[in-house]
């Protein structure tokens, strides 16, 4: 084992007895139930992890460690991504806690640790808690991130990636969204202000995203970002940058007119009117599996309500399975987060989950997100209703399809899929929000 890894192990053990974790009561209950993952408490506690990293790398000026994303597999692993301030600059890192039985995997990871260009030190293996900490751009499944940090390496990489776009050869890269081992989104900024969006995917997510980028086009009343470059080797797609205001940000403006949602409905109808090209099918079986998986994720962190959650999800899955198949191009993850308002035009972004499926899925997904905003006290119930009605009115006027009878079912299903996000996004009241989300889904499903 490299000397750096031995040093990390010894310092970690000296710290173990003294540290008292500052977790919420819901977090503490979760930790007490899953003893198979010994480092679960450490990765969920930003202060504990920051203290451990400070001991291991005292030369790194690490401040304000803030957990922003969690991917938890009970009895197996828990990955947490953090925003961190290092030397006054914001960056990303992630820690992954493994089960005690994953010794072989940990040995392999320990033998392949890399030095981070951001932190100037190796990734850390904390053997006593079976936790590995990766500093950006190090990522076990997004290896090409390493080409984006060092200026000279990045310039060479961008020349090959964008040979016909010299304005981006010396571009800077700014991180926008990062889900470790799954997906990265960054903004390219050229020397004269030119901008583009660079997206990098894990192996199993690239092909669907590429098909979505190829299959949905701009049409009357609809703007879709053009793909300007791609690399299958590095699993990268580059899109044009579209200026505008995100719809979910506009919701809070006092002068926002809910009738703008009619334009959004009409733009969605333009998506559904397209042939879909190479899109894969979103079958009823796949939808049912997705609902059950979301319910299982909630049951894992809310065991007192697990039986009720599973029974309700099974009921909705059964209702979906009894419906006839529908095959039109759908967005697959439609919400106000994916919509830009620009000079009276509607731009719809991120067709990574696009498929051939039921158009009601997109309408229900959007309305489920409105329900979620209300539960989080982001919008009032009155605004929620006005937004949903305007969306449906705009869609009805622009589309020949008739998915309206299924919107209620898909709204309830959409809320079930959103319920795990309370824990995944580290909401302070994640347990209460998860339960409220499920209750609201039940109310909608029962409101015939």
TrEMBL record:
InterPro entries: Aminoglycoside_PTrfase (IPR002575), Kinase-like_dom_sf (IPR011009). Keywords: Transferase. Residues 189-373 form the Aminoglycoside phosphotransferase domain. It holds the Pfam family APH. One of its GO terms (molecular function) is transferase activity. This is Aminoglycoside phosphotransferase family protein.
